[in-house]
Amino acid sequence: MACHYKYYVLKGESMKILVACEFSGIVRDSFTAAGHDALSCDLSPTERPGKHYQGDVLDIIGDGWDMMIAHPPCTYLSRVATRHLYGGGYLHEDRYAMGVEAAEFFMKLYNAPIPRIAIENPVPFLIFDLPKVSQIINPSHFGHSVSKKTCLWLKNLPPLMSTYICANPETTKKRGGWFNILTGSVRAAARSRTFQGIADAMAEQWGKL
């Protein structure tokens, strides 16, 4: 069972935080509960009430943020999609072009004019030459009995420290149809949501810098 916490900062320590490519509001709400001015941004509307900008994050990326937590689309960058890129033993040029476009968007976030940046994505496919990963975390180290490798690219942020390690976590493929019974955009949306324990750890540890 997940162990979730709420944290609060002293008056005057509040930061202006952008949570890019998030419609769930999970990370945004963890930072808001910790006393920060957090805004989520996505092309889709937010799933829960809270400060949210529906639109292109690049429209607001230069608005004086102290920190950005970003979750760029990973459909064409993830290593697990290799079979789609090289299906039949040859490179699918259309799929590769979409991967290049996704990598360019990733780099626009990575090079944003924001002092502290964390970008979250699955293990990437090497062909797209993304920057070196700063850290690999797992939900099972943050109170969730699930094994799912998640990469973090960090700028001026320390590695995220484990909060509650669960023994014998299940992989996402074995979790009683958690993802596997879902299809299409519904499955993609489910996989994109940040685990609450990870969001709370971000707010506690990075929100106190």
Plain-language structure description:
It contains five helices and nine strands, in the order E-H-E-E-E-H-H-E-E-E-E-E-H-H. It has 209 residues and is α/β, with parallel strands linked by helices. The chain has one domain: Rossmann fold. The strands form two sheets. It has a seven-stranded mixed sheet, sandwiched between helices. Helix 1 packs parallel to helix 5 (196-206). The protein is globular. Mean pLDDT is 85; it is low at 1-12, 174-179 and 181-185.
Which terms would index this structure?
disordered N terminus; seven-stranded mixed beta sheet; 24% helix; globular; 5 helices; alpha/beta; single chain; Rossmann fold; two-stranded parallel sheet; 209 residues
Order of H and E elements: EHEEEHHEEEEEHH
Return Rg in Å.
17 Å
Order of strands across the widest beta sheet? 3-2-1-4-5-8-6
Kindly estimate the percentage of residues that lie in beta strands according to DSSP: 15-25%
> So how many helices?
5
User: Which stretches are poorly predicted, pLDDT < 50 over at least 5 residues?
Assistant: 1-12, 174-179, 181-185
Q: What is the percent of helical residues?
A: 10-25%
What's the mean pLDDT score? Answer: 85
**Number of separate domains:** 1
Biggest sheet architecture = 7 strands, mixed
CATH topology: Rossmann fold
> Which secondary-structure class do the elements indicate?
alpha/beta
First-last Cα distance: 28 Å
Kindly provide the name of the CATH class: Alpha Beta
Count the beta strands: 9
Dominant shape = globular
* CATH architectural grouping: 3-Layer(aba) Sandwich
